[in-house]
Amino acid sequence: MSQSVVISESYAAEDFARFGTFIDRPTQAGQRQFYSDWLGADGLVPVFHVNNVPSTTLPLTLTRLERHPHAAQCFVPLDVSRYLVSVAPSLPDGSADLSGLKSFLLPSTVGVIYARGVWHAGASVLDRAGAFAVLMWRGANDDDVFADIAPTLLISQGPSA
């Protein structure tokens, strides 16, 4: 293993802000929470699909990250227990900065929008298989960028993960 990352069980918006935003329901009945400013890209078309993701267990080893330079990517849990969101900033050359890799444990009630160009791991659901609604924009030939990384172990900081 090249490194280990402790999974954060807190998911404060300010801790995630440089990577995107969390999607959370409004606090009061009748309110709406808008996320439209995160979405869309010139010349691209929206694509909406549902993923069925097998469950995984901790500790978890990451060996690959991805990013989408032209479009944000939105994941809304439809039927999950808990899931991991793992993100990394970019180095000046555009590659993933693994020293800044962070992993967040999210409940089934919170979605995520990855900002354009943010390095992230694929969805990792815990406890049982899960499903996400996924919304993103497509049309750029170079919008799926994958990078193999040195094996990175995601570990729990407590018994609840």
UniProtKB/TrEMBL annotation:
Chemical reaction(s) catalysed: (S)-ureidoglycolate = urea + glyoxylate
Keyword terms, alphabetized: Lyase, Purine metabolism
Domain of life of the organism encoding this protein: Bacteria
One Pfam family this sequence matches: Ureidogly_lyase
InterPro entries documented for this protein: RmlC_Cupin_sf (IPR011051), UAH_cupin (IPR047233), Ureidogly_lyase (IPR007247), Ureidoglycolate_lyase_dom_sf (IPR024060)
Molecular function terms, GO-annotated: ureidoglycolate hydrolase activity; ureidoglycolate lyase activity
Segments traversing the membrane: none
GO process terms (BP): allantoin catabolic process; purine nucleobase metabolic process
Self-association and partners: Homodimer.
UniProt protein name: Ureidoglycolate lyase
Naturally occurring in which organism (per UniProt): Devosia psychrophila
